[in-house]
Amino acid sequence: MIALYRPGTSVVHRMPAGVKLLALLAVALVVTLFAGNAVVLAGSAAVVVIGYLAAGLGVVEVLRQVVVLRWLIAVTLLTQLVFLPPLTAVTNTSRVIVVVVLAALVTLTTRTTALLDTIERCLGPLRRIGVNPARVGFVLTLAIATVPVIAGFASSIREAQRARGARFSLRAFVVPLLIMSLKHADELADALTARGAA
């Protein structure tokens, strides 16, 4: 797993991992339940920016996170434009950006071990029905950490295409992204198996 945590002493860094995960869940629920409300979407985006400022990361880091996601954003937007009205496609894509950038803030300001411990504690009561909190927590932590990794793959692919002077092609972008993502998943699975975690 790629360590994204950036040490710091800000109020966001000191905030318990559980509070940050609840904030992420709350924002995700709000932008989902009020999908068509532009005010709610703008307010959620403002909360994300304030979070980055409070963490001492600044607006530049917010923009950097969006830039890293640019090709995933393009794919998400283009595929939705095929089936949905433009305004709906833009709104849906904006909701994804808000949640993913906020998830990045959580990983930037929280140690992976703290995230894992918090998720395990929350899932503790489910042991009675046969759920293994350690495994579920580990999978969720991996999922959170993998989002920026996939975004990095997307950025690398587009930069390589631009270096060759190739125009943007959805097929030429998605196929290598899928291959790199599957390769990363295989390597991660092999590493986990070697350590007896899978």
Could you explain the architecture of this structure?
The chain has 198 residues and is mainly α. It has one domain. It is built from nine helices and no strands. It has helices at residues 11-14, 17-33, 38-54, 58-68, 70-83, 86-109, 112-123, 133-163, 170-194. The longest helix is centred in the last third of the chain and has 31 residues, at 133-163. It is globular and about 50 Å long.
Tertiary shape: globular
- What does the radius of gyration come to? 18 Å
The biggest sheet, with number of strands, parallel, antiparallel or mixed sense and barrel status, is: none
How many domains? 1
Q: Measure the end-to-end span.
A: 14 Å
Q: Approximately what portion of the residues adopt beta-strand conformation?
A: under 5%
Percent of residues in helices: over 70%
Helix/strand/pairing category: mainly alpha
Number of helices: 9
* Mean pLDDT figure: 82
Topology:
Blueprint: H1 11-14, H2 17-33, H3 38-54, H4 58-68, H5 70-83, H6 86-109, H7 112-123, H8 133-163, H9 170-194
Features:
198 residues
